[in-house]
C-alpha cells in the first residue's frame, strides 16, 4: 500500500494455561512461552477452565496479558475490537465478569461475545448459502456440543452436551498405559502427543479388536511409539519396524489403545459415563428439532474441535448417522481443513461483514448502559 | 494319623479362606467408579513442583478451586483483584447458582445428553479386549484366567482409588 502500511492478518494459537516444568524450579511458562521449554516431561498445568467454564481468573488474566502484550500480539486494547468465544450456556456470573474485564480493566474499544460454534456456523453459511440449516458439532477439550442452526441462528432449546472431550481421552490413555506398561501419570503433555500421533477412530470396532489380538505380522494395528527423552528428541515418534532401539530410547506399545481411547467419544459408557456418544447424540438432537428442519440438518453436519482431527472421525460419524437416519434423508458430513481454527476463521469472516459493527458493544455503550446492553446484544 | 490331621487342617483352612473372601457391596463399587471418573477430570496427577516455592515480587496465580486454598498465603490485592472478588466461584458454585436462579431452560443443566439407548459393552479391566466374565469380588470385567490373576494381584480388593 502507498502509505507503507500493510494489513496483515495472522493467527496465533496460544495454549490457554500456565505450565511448570519439573526441572525448572523457579520459572513458569505462560501460554506460548512453553515453546522455550526444553524439557517437557512432567509438565504441571494451571488451567483457567474447569469442565469447560472459566473459573480461575488469575490464570486467565495472566494468559490474556501475555497474549495481548508484546510477546504475542502487541495490541493496544483501546483501539482494538475483540471477538470472544464462550461455551454454550455460559454462566451469568462469568458473562458479566467478561464484560467487566474487557471493558473496565483492559478498555477494549468494542467487543462481540458469542459461541465458537456460532462463528463456525456463520462461516458455513457464507460458504454454502443454499444450506438452510447446519448441525454444528464442536468436539473439544472438555466436552462436545451438538448445536442445530437454522438460518444462521442457533436453536438453543435443542443444543445438547456430551461430557466427553480430549481431556478425558488423554487422562484415560495415561491411566491404562500406566496400569498396563509404564508409569506415565505425570506425563500429560507427552501422552497427549502420543494420542494425537497414533490414535484413530475405528470404522469396525470389534473387527479391529480381533486384529489387535493377533500375533506378529498379522496384527496390523500394533505400534511402538518412542517417547521423547528431551535430550536426543523433543517429540516422540513411531518406531519403524526394522530399526533397533537405541539404549536411551523408551517405548510404549499402542495396540487396542489406539482405537479404544477415541471410541469413548462414541460410547462414553465404555468407561462408565452413562451418556449417548457423539453419533447417537447427533441423531437425538436432530430428532428433537421440528420435522421440517430435520432433512436439512442431516445433510449439513459440520465437525469442529480438536477431536475431529482423529483419522476416521468423520467417516465414523457419517456411517453411524447414516445407519440411524431415516432412509429417505441424505446424510452429509463435513470436516473443515482445520477443525480447530474453523471458529477463528468464522470470526475473521464475520469481522469483515457489513453488519459487524451492529453486533458489537462499544466501550461507550457499555459505560452508558452497563451489562444490560450486553445481555441484549450478545447471544451466548 | 498325623498326616490325616495335617490334611484336614489344611483343607479347613482353605474353606475358611474361601468363605471369608470379601465381596464389595454396590455402594463401594459405585464409589470406586465415581472416583475413577473424577480422576479423568483432573488437570494434574502429580504435585505442584513449585508448591513450596515463594517467589517474591511476582504475581503467582491463586487457586480458587475447591482444593487446598491457603488463606494465610493471600497476596496483596491490587485494584483489579478487588473488584473481581465477587466473580471468584468454583464450578460447583456456578452450577448451584444456576439451580437456584430458576433460569428458564435451556441452560447448562438441561443441556446434558441422556443415557444411550444401546446396551453397555464389556471390556477386560486388565487388557482392554472384549470380556465375558465378571469378577465376583468387585464386579470388574476380565477376559481370561491370566487377566483375572493380574486383576486380583493388582487391583480388585487392593485398589483404593
Ligand atoms: Zn484381559
Ligand atoms: Zn475384582
Automatic annotation (TrEMBL), chain A:
InterPro entries attached to this UniProt entry: Actin, ATPase_NBD
Pfam families, per the entry: Actin (PF00022)
Keywords: Cytoplasm, Cytoskeleton, Nucleus
Main location group: cytoplasm
Stored SMART domains: ACTIN
Gene3D superfamilies membership: 3.30.420.40, Actin, Chain A, domain 2, Actin, Chain A, domain 4
SUPFAM superfamilies named among the record's database cross-references: Actin-like ATPase domain
Location(s), subcellular: Cytoplasm, Cytoskeleton; Nucleus
Top-level taxon: Eukaryota
GO cellular component term, pick one: cytoskeleton
Family per similarity comment: Belongs to the actin family. ARP6 subfamily.
Protein name: Actin-related protein 6
Organism: Patiria miniata (Bat star)
Phylogenetic lineage: Eukaryota, Metazoa, Echinodermata, Eleutherozoa, Asterozoa
From TrEMBL, chain B:
CDD domains assigned: zf-HIT_ZNHIT1_like
GO terms for MF: zinc ion binding
GO biological process terms, semicolon-separated: chromatin remodeling
Keywords, comma-separated and alphabetical: Metal-binding, Zinc, Zinc-finger
Composition bias type Basic residues, residue spans: 72-82
GO cellular component annotations of the record: nucleus
Protein name per the record: HIT-type domain-containing protein
Species whose genome carries this gene: Patiria miniata
Amino acid at each position: 500500500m502507498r502509505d507503507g502500511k500493510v494489513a496483515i492478518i495472522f493467527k496465533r494459537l496460544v495454549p490457554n494455561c500456565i505450565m511448570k516444568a519439573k526441572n525448572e524450579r523457579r520459572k513458569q511458562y505462560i501460554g506460548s512461552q512453553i515453546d522455550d521449554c526444553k524439557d517437557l516431561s512432567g509438565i504441571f498445568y494451571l488451567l483457567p477452565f474447569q469442565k469447560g467454564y472459566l473459573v480461575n481468573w488469575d490464570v486467565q488474566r495472566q494468559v490474556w496479558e501475555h497474549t495481548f502484550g508484546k510477546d504475542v500480539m502487541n495490541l493496544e486494547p483501546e483501539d482494538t475490537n475483540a471477538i470472544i468465544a464462550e461455551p454454550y450456556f455460559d454462566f451469568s456470573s462469568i458473562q458479566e465478569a467478561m464484560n467487566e474485564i474487557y471493558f473496565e480493566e483492559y478498555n477494549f474499544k468494542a467487543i462481540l461475545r458469542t459461541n465458537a460454534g456460532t462463528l463456525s456456523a456463520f462461516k458455513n453459511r457464507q460458504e454454502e448459502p443454499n444450506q438452510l440449516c447446519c448441525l454444528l458439532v464442536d468436539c473439544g477439550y472438555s466436552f462436545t456440543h451438538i448445536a442445530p442452526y437454522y438460518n444462521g441462528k442457533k436453536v438453543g432449546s435443542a443444543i445438547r452436551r456430551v461430557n466427553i472431550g480430549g481431556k478425558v481421552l488423554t487422562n484415560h490413555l495415561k491411566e491404562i498405559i500406566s496400569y498396563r506398561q509404564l508409569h506415565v501419570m505425570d506425563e500429560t503433555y507427552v501422552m497427549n502427543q502420543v494420542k494425537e500421533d497414533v490414535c484413530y477412530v475405528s470404522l469396525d470396532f470389534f473387527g479391529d479388536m480381533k486384529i489387535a489380538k493377533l500375533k506378529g505380522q498379522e496384527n496390523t494395528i500394533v505400534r511402538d511409539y518412542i517417547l521423547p527423552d528431551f535430550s536426543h528428541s523433543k517429540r516422540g515418534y513411531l518406531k519403524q519396524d526394522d530399526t533397533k532401539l537405541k539404549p536411551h530410547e523408551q517405548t510404549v506399545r499402542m495396540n487396542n489403545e489406539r482405537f479404544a481411547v477415541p471410541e469413548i467419544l462414541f460410547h462414553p459408557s465404555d468407561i462408565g459415563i452413562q451418556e449417548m456418544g457423539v453419533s447417537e447424540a447427533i441423531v437425538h438432537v436432530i430428532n428433537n428439532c421440528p420435522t421440517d428442519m430435520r432433512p436439512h440438518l442431516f445433510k449439513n453436519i459440520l465437525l469442529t474441535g480438536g477431536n475431529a482431527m482423529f483419522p476416521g472421525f468423520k467417516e465414523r460419524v457419517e456411517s453411524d448417522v447414516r445407519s440411524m437416519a431415516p432412509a429417505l434423508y441424505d446424510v452429509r458430513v463435513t470436516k473443515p481443513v482445520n477443525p480447530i481454527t474453523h471458529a477463528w476463521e468464522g470470526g475473521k469472516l464475520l469481522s469483515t461483514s457489513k453488519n459487524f459493527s451492529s453486533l458489537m458493544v462499544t466501550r461507550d455503550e457499555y459505560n452508558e448502559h452497563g451489562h444490560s446492553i450486553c445481555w441484549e446484544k450478545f447471544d451466548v | 494319623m498325623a498326616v490325616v490331621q495335617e490334611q484336614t487342617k489344611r483343607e479347613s483352612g482353605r474353606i475358611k479362606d474361601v468363605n471369608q473372601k470379601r465381596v464389595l457391596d454396590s455402594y463401594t463399587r459405585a464409589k470406586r467408579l465415581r472416583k475413577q471418573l473424577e480422576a479423568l477430570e483432573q488437570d494434574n496427577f502429580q504435585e505442584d513442583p513449585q508448591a513450596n516455592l515463594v517467589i517474591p515480587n511476582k504475581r503467582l496465580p491463586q487457586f480458587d478451586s475447591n482444593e487446598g486454598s491457603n488463606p494465610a498465603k493471600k497476596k496483596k490485592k491490587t485494584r483489579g483483584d478487588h473488584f473481581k472478588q465477587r466473580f471468584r466461584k468454583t464450578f460447583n458454585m456456578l452450577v448451584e447458582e444456576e439451580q437456584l436462579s430458576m433460569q428458564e431452560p435451556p441452560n447448562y443443566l438441561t443441556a446434558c445428553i441422556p443415557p444411550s439407548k444401546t446396551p453397555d459393552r464389556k471390556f477386560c479391566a486388565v487388557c482392554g479386549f472384549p470380556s465375558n466374565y465378571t469378577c465376583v469380588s468387585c464386579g470388574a470385567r476380565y477376559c481370561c484366567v491370566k487377566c483375572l490373576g493380574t486383576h486380583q494381584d493388582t487391583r480388585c480388593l487392593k485398589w483404593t482409588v
